[in-house]
Specification:
Length: 147
């Protein structure tokens, strides 16, 4: 078997389980964030978690397969390890960036949900009727007399 084929096989044997490990970690701990955010709807929390994980898998495994090819001359074990170290290193960096991005998304969703909600301040009321603010248009007069 050619050394480059061995490098490709080892690359896939390392990169795919690494992707699965990161995705499972993201799913497990992301569910904790999402169940807190969607505490009134656990089904929605699970659905959002699954959608994020599926997207993570599609992007990660797509990158792993696109990054599989190489035009390097691989003649021996040294070149196999050098090619493998570059490929697995780049995949690990990309997975780390994607994982960080997903954590930031989870945290943003959680922070937005936990932020204090602005309570609308009622306008002034005089004799049971709202008082218009200065500069606001006056009361609307109907085009016909009221009965």
């Amino acid at each position: 078997m050619e050394p480059v084929v061995v490098a490709y096989a080892l690359y896939l044997l390392i990169s795919i389980p690494l992707t699965v490990l990161v995705a499972r970690t993201l799913s497990k701990h992301g569910r904790t964030f999402l169940t807190q955010v969607f505490e009134d709807s656990p089904g929605l929390a699970n659905a959002v978690n699954q959608l994020l994980v599926v997207g993570f898998y599609l992007i990660s495994l797509g990158f792993v397969t696109l990054f599989l090819t190489s035009h390097a001359d691989v003649h021996g074990a040294r070149e196999v390890f050098e090619l493998l170290s570059v490929k697995v290193g780049v995949v690990a960096l990309v997975l780390g960036v994607m994982h960080l991005f997903n954590v930031l998304v989870f945290n943003g969703i959680r922070r937005r949900h936990l932020a204090p909600k602005a309570v609308p301040v009622p306008g002034p009321v005089l004799a049971g009727r709202p008082v218009p603010y200065p500069g606001a248009p006056g009361p609307q007069v109907p085009p016909f007399p009221a009965p």
